[in-house]
Model the fold of this input.
Amino acid sequence: MILLFVVAGLAEIGGGYLIWLCLREGKPFYLGIIGGVVLALYGVIATFQSFPSFGRVYAAYGGVFIVLSVLWGWVIDKEIPDMYDWIGAGICLIGVSVMLWAPR
Done:
């Protein structure tokens, strides 16, 4: 379950990044095409989650996406996250945890 969130998040960020490189940084067009395919795979990967609620699953992906985006920026773009990046990411993970695992 958590692994699916990570894999889907990396597909979303990676696909978007490839499109960014193509359109914003003048990289080859095929990177944009690959990025679009990877983004479509993100949509497929998300359907493998066991949670029954589409909205709740996608909201949880939003929190995971934020954390992975901070890590992506750190590793790929060499942008060192500051304390507020980490605090914000932590708050997002707390929110995701409440949404997914609160007793109902």
Q: What stands out?
A: The helical segments are 2-24, 29-46, 54-75, 83-101. The chain has a mean pLDDT of 92. The CA atoms of residues 43 and 78 lie 28 Å apart. The radius of gyration is 15 Å.
